[in-house]
Amino acid sequence: MCAWSEITSFYNLTGAEGPERVPAKQVSSTFFQVLGINPVLGRTFSAAEDQPGDRRVAVISHSLWEARYGRGPLVIGKT
Questions:
Q1: Which of 21, 50, 67, 68 has minimal CB crowding within 10 Å?
Q2: Model pTM score
Q3: Pairwise CA distance, residues 51 & 35, whole Å
Q4: What is the share, in percent, of the chain residues with pLDDT greater than 70?
Q5: Alpha-carbon torsion 67, 70, 73, 76, what sign?
Q6: Within 13 Å and on the Cβ side, how many CA atoms surround 74?
Q7: How many helices (H) and strands (E) are present in the chain, helices listed first?
Q8: Quick one: CA torsion of 20, 28, 43, 54, rounded to 10 degrees?
Q9: 42: which residues sit within 8 A by CB, 6+ positions away?
């Protein structure tokens, strides 16, 4: 089963680069697999992360990765 939210939420992304408001969607752990999409770096969501109360993780878009992080691999695993 693959699920996603039709509602776009907005989150405040903070860090050394300054604050930025970014759009986000909530998706299930199978979302990327169903679409046949693999991350350039890092990973997608695990099935355990679909469970309520688990830690929050994010997959960022390629365009955000390029614009905000200069395609740097050190963004992986950051809070």
A1: 21
A2: 0.80
A3: 21
A4: 95
A5: negative
A6: 3
A7: 2, 2
A8: 80
A9: 59, 76, 77
